[in-house]
TrEMBL record:
One of its GO terms (molecular function) is ATP binding. Gene3D superfamilies: Magnesium chelatase subunit I, C-Terminal domain, P-loop containing nucleotide triphosphate hydrolases. PANTHER family: MAGNESIUM-CHELATASE SUBUNIT CHLD (PTHR42759:SF1), MOXR FAMILY PROTEIN (PTHR42759). Keywords: ATP-binding, Nucleotide-binding. This is MoxR family ATPase. The keyword Calcium does not apply.
Amino acid sequence: MQPQRLIQIQQYLSKMVLGQPNLVEGLLIALFADGHLLVEGPPGLAKTRAVKALADCVEGDFQRIQFTPDLLPADLTGTDIFRQETGQFEFQTGPLFHNLILADEINRAPAKVQSALLEAMAEGQITVGKNSYRLPKLFLVMATQNPIENEGTYPLPEAQLDRFLLHLSLDYPDAETELEILTLSRNEAQHSELQKPQPLTESELFAARDEALKLYLAPQLESYIVALTMATRRPASLDEQLGQWLQWGVSPRASIALERCARARAWINGRDYVAPEDIQAVAPNVLRHRILLSYQAEAEGISKDQVIQRLLKLVAVP
């Protein structure tokens, strides 16, 4: 893919989502590393807007699903419908049979719905009755959730959290950015006329993914990735306090995610090799939803991000 195409996409996303560079970078990494994305933050931080803006940059079917407590698995997967004229059942596809899926407020859906979505994310297929149906080759779930309200929500299962490549945690913008947002809100018509970049075709996107995921990664950095993940499983051997804070470490899927995201980040930044700072930059978003803190850490008010930063300081960089 031509560098100019990537720059246009970056500029478009940055203009559509002001003051959230971490979100823009995370969207692009998820897109080019071929992984699902979970975006968490308070209301009004343009989470849904950002996902829609990314959909503008890709040539594919986009579908938004508003998750609610009364949602049923069939509302996602589709169902068998009896055709009276033929006397047979015919499968009617659901909204999951699109390329880009926005799962808005994903934690408001019950366990059966989460199970159906988990199969789609993990296996690239859905099962209705005795039959399984393949989803499109280009299939990307971008989910949002609000961490403030707990009423009427269902915590995501650990198995499903592990299927998300990245977990982005957003915070409020600074005063200068909010003034810019205020100015743009008065000129929404002008803002909505931003020139959209030429969408990436599926073939272009797959070619870009291949290019990104074949970037050179030194053996020493591969060992560094493994050292980071191993440290989450045996934290006491690295640091006594870290051992008191971490109850459960990450799976091997985290090592794979760190490698893929580091390669994608390096490629987005125009390099043909992965540097240690690429791994360190993506580590919080890759590990945040995969580690489990102890009761002691929660009682002391220690956050997952603090644990990850301590981990990055303690594990030696090659």
